[in-house]
Q: What sequence folds into this?
């Protein structure tokens, strides 16, 4: 069975050594827009994608949003449903169809110190959307290291485009 493109992009990120923790929401939105030939994705594009992730989960997996200290940004990754029992979480969404947990926010994402400082699942989701809004609206989907060693959003680089092509095109 073929998985949705959003799942493949999230799931393959670490397996193909694109990053250690997970994929950013701007990258995910940008990659899907590239495939769908969407000229400029918007907040409604982002919201629709997140609702699809929440309401149409892939069996046996949950999408986890966590703070990546390496790139200083929230990222999405896949975890098996069995692993969720071991995760410390207070914020999660369930699929309306199955009732199963489909999206969780890790405690480091919820933290005021290193994360987004959110208090419940709706607050966490809104802060994720807000965080991603500017890079997405600017067409800056990739979080890249600058000369100074800091990370910032910019255009897709060749490695990003190869990953997108190999994973969903």
A:
């Amino acid at each position: 069975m073929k998985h949705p493109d959003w799942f493949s992009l999230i799931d393959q990120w670490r397996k193909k050594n694109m990053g250690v923790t997970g994929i950013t929401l701007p990258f995910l939105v940008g990659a899907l827009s590239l495939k769908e030939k969407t000229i400029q994705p918007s907040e409604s594009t982002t919201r629709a994608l997140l609702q699809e992730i929440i309401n149409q989960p892939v069996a046996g997996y949950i999408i986890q949003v966590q703070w990546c200290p390496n790139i200083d940004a929230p990222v999405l990754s896949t975890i098996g449903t069995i692993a969720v029992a071991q995760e410390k979480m207070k914020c999660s969404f369930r699929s309306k169809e199955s009732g199963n947990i489909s999206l969780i926010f890790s405690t480091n994402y919820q933290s005021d110190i290193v994360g987004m400082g959110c208090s419940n699942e709706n607050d966490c989701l809104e802060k994720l959307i807000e965080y991603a809004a500017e890079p997405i609206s600017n067409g800056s989907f990739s979080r890249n290291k600058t000369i100074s060693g800091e990370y910032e959003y910019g255009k897709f680089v060749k490695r990003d485009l190869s990953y997108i092509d190999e994973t969903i095109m």
Remarks:
- The chain has a mean pLDDT of 91.
- The beta strands are 61-68, 73-80, 91-94, 101-105, 142-145, 151-154.
